[in-house]
Amino acid sequence: MYKVSFQQINYFLVMAEKLNFTEASKSLYISQPALSKQIQILEKELGLSLFIRNNQSISLTPSGQALVKKWSSLEEMFTQSVSDAKLLSHTSTGTLNIGSTETFDCEESILELVETFRKAYPNININLELYGFKELREKLNSKALDIVFVPYFELAAYKDITSIHFKEVELAIAISTSNPLSKLDNLTIKDLLDEPFVVISSDESSNGIERIKEACKLNGFSPNIVKYTKNMNSLILAVKNGDGVTFCNNKIPVDKKIRLYNYSNPSRDSDIFAVWKSNNLKIELNFFKDELLKFNNKEELNGTPLPQRNSS
Fold first, then answer.
1. The pTM is what?
2. What CATH architecture applies to the domain 98-166+272-302?
3. Which tens digits make up the pLDDT trace of 10-58?
């Protein structure tokens, strides 16, 4: 058994990051000689040379590189385990970061879920923010967000995730009231053959664009896409401005400039799913997932059974 402390591991990891004794010692608030001595003690205990030292620079040996990979995750697991233990004993306040897509008719349900969670775990702080599709992906990947709520068609853009169905979404065709088609009592996708389309940019959601193209293709035409927008709010604004037609959820706020026509979407690929990284072991997330499952079970009892379309 090696006699190595977590403090020594921390010293080594900081030194491996800085590769400079002066910078590393300042970061650790210890003297440079003390840090150098601790590294030497660690190397002697392990019987390994961890750093290549010369007058010009310091670099990691292959052994040092291997330990950085292993010990980085070890330190993270240790820190998380202590946080989890404190949380369970109610001596520490945890934090859960949640992100949701904009204007997809899920805010009310998420707020209801969060309210239920807060009652069960009052010591856990909840940060809830709305983002565009791209930012949600980036923040989940960087662990800035622990869980996100996005349409099913977005799941293909995520990696290493677990997901669960959260809410059904009914779609609509959105059209400006300045368009003569808005005077029709009923409007179908076939009526959009000669209409310009406005869509979310491919940078935000390439899967969303493909979904629209496939829907039009099934009805015998390719959409004439004339404008790309960065977010859902800009998309709806473009429709109101008469730039083109689009698909959206049927619960968006409407006014005299826009009309919605119900659109039957048999694929249900706009339903909202809760998504998290499979390797996210935060105990706060585990608690939230438990409440999420309870919430879904309640929804099943109160209405239509939720589709089982989990992915990982």
1. 0.67
2. 3-Layer(aba) Sandwich (3.40)
3. 999 999 999 999 999 998 889 999 999 999 999 999 999 999 988 878 9
Q: Which CATH class is domain 6-88?
A: mainly alpha
Residue 189 and residue 266 in contact, taking contact as beta carbons nearer than 8 Å:
no
In tens, the pLDDT along 274-283 reads: 999 999 988 8
